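Dear support,

I submitted the protein below through the web form. The confirmation email said the job was done, but the results page showed an empty box. After a refresh the structure appeared. I'm attaching both so you can tell me whether what I see now is the final result or a partial one.
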Amino acid sequence: MNRLDKWMLGMVLGIAVSGVGALASAQPLSGTVLAGFTGLPLRNCQGTYCGELQKLPFRQPLNILVNDREGWAYVEVTGTGQRGWVCLDNTTQP
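What the results page shows now:
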C-alpha cells in the first residue's frame, strides 16, 4: 500500500468514525428527555407492535433508565413513576 492509499484509508476511516460519534450523541444514553408530541405512547415493550400503557402529554419529562442503543429507551415518567418504553426519535432534549 503506497502513501496515498494509506492517506485515503485514514481519511475514510476518520469520516466514518466522526459520523458514528454524531449519531451516538443525538440520543442520550441516560438523563432526561421530553415527549416530542402530544399522545406519545408509553409502551410495555420495545416496538410499535407493543401495547400502550398510556399516552404522554407534550414535553412530559421522562427519566431514561435503560437505553437499548437501537432507538428505544425504558423510561420513568416524572411525577407519576409510571415506567415503560418510548421511541427516542419521538423525544427532545430539555
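Response: this is the final, complete result; the empty box was a page-load delay. The two ends are 49 Å apart (CA to CA).
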